[in-house]
C-alpha cells in the first residue's frame, strides 16, 4: 500500500521536485500546500500518513504547524525541510512531533519512505 504524503512549501518549483521524488519512491502525494493554514486544513481533509513540511512558510513557521498537527486526531509523521540547517535540537523536534529534519539538498539521499510511513 502506498504511503500518502502532503507536501507543504511556498516554492512551487520545490513542490514539483518533491512531488516527483516522492512519486519515484512509490509514495502518493495527496495534496500540495503553500502555507501553514492550508496545510492544517489539508491534513484534516486527507489524513495523510506523512507531511513533508518546509520551515519557512509565509504565514507561520513549520515548527508551529507541526505542533498543531501533533494535537490533531490523526497526527501524521512530519519531516521538516529547509535550505538552512536546523536550529532545533533533536529533543525540540521530537517534542513538536517532528520525525526528522532534512536539508533540501539531502532529500534525494534520505529514506523518506521510512520517515513518512506510519
From TrEMBL:
Q: What is the lineage of its organism?
A: Bacteria, Bacillati, Actinomycetota, Actinomycetes, Kitasatosporales
Indicate yes or no for the key word Phosphoprotein. yes
Q: Which residues carry this modification: 4-aspartylphosphate?
A: 54
UniProt domain Response regulatory: residue ranges:
4-118
Q: Which domain of life is it from?
A: Bacteria
Keyword entries, A-Z: Phosphoprotein
Q: Which organism is it from?
A: Streptomyces dengpaensis
Tell me the InterPro entries matching this sequence: Bact_response_regulator, CheY-like_superfamily, NreC/VraR/RcsB-like_REC, Sig_transdc_resp-reg_receiver
UniProt xrefs under SMART domains: REC
Q: What is this protein called?
A: Response regulator
